[in-house]
Amino acid sequence: MAGRRWKETADLKDSCPRARLQAAPASAASTLTGPLRQAMIEPMRVPHPALQGPGSARRPFLLALARTALGASALGTWPVQGARAAVAGPPRQASETRRLELQGHRGARGLVPESTLEGFARALEIGVDTLELDTGITSDGVVVVHHDRRLNPDHTRDADGRFIETPGALLHALRWSDLASLDVGRARPGSRTASQFPRQQPLDGARIPTLRQVLELALRAGPPGLQLNIETKLSPLAAQETLPPEPFVRLLLRDLREAGLLGRSTIQSFDWRTLREVQRQAPGVRTACLTSQQPQGPGLADGIWTAGLRLADHGSAPRMVKSAGAQVWSPFHGDVDAANIAEAQALGLRVAVWTVNDPRLMDRLIDLGVDALITDEPDRAREVMARRGLPLPPPGAARANEARGR
Question: How far, in Å, CA of 230 to CA of 261, rounded?
């Protein structure tokens, strides 16, 4: 089966071709005072970024804020089969009235180490509509922001500064206190991460953050309307490596609810069982179906990853996503063309493609009519958007300075 052929250790959204506080896990709201505490504990309902106005001013980098949030002591390549984006029909031209959503993948991974408060702060400084991030859960029930189910030896060092050995330990087998001393601020020399992102600047001392820390950063530093696109890192082929979908989703929603950010969050996953749980536990929260129809991807044919839904029963990926009850289809960029994008949008779905780092490919996908770009390099995406006259998302550093009392 296609799903079983996928190598479990493969990084799906890592594998796209370029062309193509140290703190106890107490409630985030309980650690805050004044206006920020009020923002954390009162639900916030704001329009989707498509309804927000443009902004252009850049602000200073938020590294200091990220380190403050951590606490003073804390601091590929898939072959694109039938690359539809390259052979699709007549392109649609962008206009100044169109609103493209820009998502910073794992923060701004092309510039700053991934899934760190520093990385998310950098994305906010550049200016994005949405922070895209991944979640896992430790053995003591703390939701952390980390892409892999295991610690990644390519960018994880122990308290003595040595890169960890392969395979890394499962997050679900570790306590939060076990993670707090790990350094994820530098790529291992010669690793795929190091070669894939030559512009990435090391930030020694960067830690694996909790979700609550990232949510606090978003509230303190983000512009009005900043969105969150949160992936659940589960696999139906490795059930023993994570919590089951129901408790995983329950803990995730708890943190979002306490922060007042349910209305600004989308939950995405390749494992559609978790999306079904989100819809059951919090029906008003947006969900996004991640898909890949490449040979190395989870696949849509056998129903293993798609909560029993099968491509043959629905005829197309957009129809499967609609049947799954999601509001967003998030496909690998090589799987889209003008026809299936139009089909998805006619079904009322937004189309958010991953992971797009080449400016020429960004142009092509914008012409095809995608609603959102997920990118490791939001600075380059903004250049493309500016050249085309598309509205730019506002940077959030000014609000961060206000939150710090400057």
Answer: 12
